[in-house]
Amino acid sequence: MRGPMPFLDLRSGAFGPSIAAAALLLVASGAAALDPPHDASWSIDCSSCHTTHSSPGGGLTTVGGNGNLCLSCHMIGSLASGFPFVDADQALPSPGLPGGTSPSGTSHRWDSGPAGHAKADGGNTSPGEVIPGGVFNGRIPKTVTLTVTATGDVGAAVFSWSDTLGGGGSGLTTGVDVPLNQGMTATFDAADTSPSFVAGDSWRIFVRTDLLPPTDPALAARLEDGRTMCSTCHNQHNQSRTPFDPSAPAYGGSGTGEGRHFMRVDNDEGNMCNDCHGVRVVQFSSEGSHPVDVAVPGSGGTQPPATLPLDPNDRIACMTCHQVHDSPASDGSLLRSADRTGLCVECHTLADTATPASHFDPGSTGALWPGGQYGSTFPAITDGSQTATCANCHQAHGWPDTADPDVDYPRLQVDFEESLCYTCHDGSPADADVRTDFLKSSAHPLALASGVHEAGEPAVVTARHVECEDCHGPHDALPRVSLPGAATAPRPASGPLEGARGVNLAGNAVDPASYEYELCLRCHADSPGLPLPQTPRQYPESNLRLEFNGSKASYHAVALQGTNSAVPSLITGWDETSLMSCTSCHNNDDGPAAGGAGANGPHGSDWPSLLERRYETADNTAFSTAAYAMCFKCHSWNSIQSGTSFDDHNKHINGEDTPCNVCHDPHASDLPKLINFDTSVVFPLNGTLRYESTGTHNGRCTLRCHGKNHGNLSY
């Protein structure tokens, strides 16, 4: 295995005995000396690269072709064999590759321009070649395949073409700058032998987006047929220009620049990279790419990197994340680390990779992006090394918005976070089909607030909305857990709820939430526009924080132990000290808690109010245990009908077809025993509507119900 290339390792600053990957095409005007190691210290002089007569290459070079000259030394067995470059080193990144082609490469290409690079398919017999031209103006990277369909020389041979985006043409005559599409052309360069092109032979043109020809004259003058060559970026004669490497030694004149990478122009602030890649130089992620030329905030989920280099002004540049040559991973992305997630978390602190969270678990829970849907065209990631990496949800350099192709999605591979979540959580690759739950008759209304959620918004929301990330921390979430039955403490915000924010019983923001109910209180407590209770109550209350914080006379024990000391109807496993959770009642009607195989949680239910089981509230409902299955999840019908807590329970529920909801508030009440009358069924008697507790299982009522008067009636 070839060792590292110190002249391009921007973290070490070391410079080994190398000739460097510099271009050797043109002699610097008036150069009296060469900078090491292109000097006498390695027995290098002008004649090593140049000849005065019968030169096969331009610039009086001993080898024709810029890249060929450099690679004549930078190859195994030659003078710079310790630092060779081979064609396979050149980056071939995804997406945009045809099926069966894997991303590869550890080095910036030295044969490409804005129109991409052409590569002959294996088995070609044609002696001619294809040269891409034009400036690609498409928004999605692609590969164009050109196939000769009729043998002949240039002007006689015929070809067809197709691309990975579905474009194509046929019956085209070979020639110079033959138009393809999206600004691309193809030039067919004839060979010395005839025919130059043979039917059946093919070439592939790999083209990337957002590349422009360099504008700096020093760079633009050293293109070959519109393609970037070694000498486009490197001045083979001296190292006076400032590289990005913050550890590069000072330059003291000719012969003293060893270790400064032979840059043709200064690149200390990424300025040389930006000349061709300037379209991606943005200041805000909302512009569809990772910001550059900005400082790392050091707050809000970010921190200055520990090992990644910043520019001299401590700002992010292209080369903060990318390494132009000899990158550690052969995946075409030229990243400084083969650990993509590790690279991101140098600056981004939200991801829990130590546990790891589900989305970062390379084992059973981590997944690969399955391919664009729900509005995104980003193709499937098939490289297993990217399992559970940030790239499965985020694209550092954006992806075109299918609804608005002139802009890129900010941060994500789709427009809205719920669309991103649905891509996996529709039953594949995630095992639970959460998307179907949200289509049920009762569901959290994700579709009404698409794109509202922002990471920096207050925990107590100012505009009521709900999105996936309001309840789930995507960087912290763990595998789903079984919902508890009776418990002695509030249900923790764990498993899929890990990392989400909430509001506590005092109305204060908590980040992260400790308990499940704190997530619910974000929207169902002090936020504006709370909906009125579905049942008109004697003592109405829409703020759930006030219902469960202990200020009421009675309440279902969600956050605090209940106040009723004797509840004989509780089934085995529950007692007066037990606590329940919001999801004990509000849950998927075909999830595990309901005996089904769907997802846990209040995403959607076919029962009203997101209830896990049937709970009838309409008066005059014929009694059945099925009609009140939600109540009988914890309470025994045998106990209730026998009158252990109220003698006339059976008479009211079974005999009078009176729903539980008419007398009892399922959340809380200002009265004992959850008594809070439905005022559409229960009316005042002579102006008085009253219930009084007169003992553990005794009380008296003054009211009118079902046409009957109860005047201070005791039981």
Residue-averaged pLDDT? 89
Give the structural class.
alpha+beta
Overall shape: it is: elongated
What is the chains' assembly state? Answer: single chain
Give a count of the beta strands, DSSP E runs of length 2 or more: 22
Give the radius of gyration. 36 Å
Count of DSSP H/I helices: 14
Helix content: 10-25%
Low-pLDDT parts are 1-32
Our estimate of the beta-strand percent is 5-15%
Largest sheet: 5 strands, antiparallel
- Strand line-up across the major sheet: 1-8-3-4-5
Distance between the termini: 90 Å
Description:
By secondary structure, the chain is an alpha+beta fold. Among the domains are: about 115-205, no CATH class; about 470-685, no CATH class. About 10% of the residues lie in helices and about 15% in strands. It is built from 14 helices and 22 strands. It has helices at about 65-70, 215-220, 230-235, 270-275, 320, 340-345, 415-425, 435-440, 470, 515-525, 545-550, 635-640, 650-655, 660-665; strands spanning about 115-120, 130-135, 140-150, 160-165, 170-175, 180, 185-190, 200-205, 225, 225-230, 400, 405-410, 440-445, 500-505, 510, 555, 605, 670, 680-685, 690-695, 700-705, 710-715. The strands form eight sheets. It has a five-stranded antiparallel β-sheet, with no helix packed on it. β11 and β12 (about 405-410) form a beta hairpin. The radius of gyration is 36 Å and the shape is elongated. It starts with about 60 loop residues before the first helix and ends with a strand. About 40% of the residues are buried.
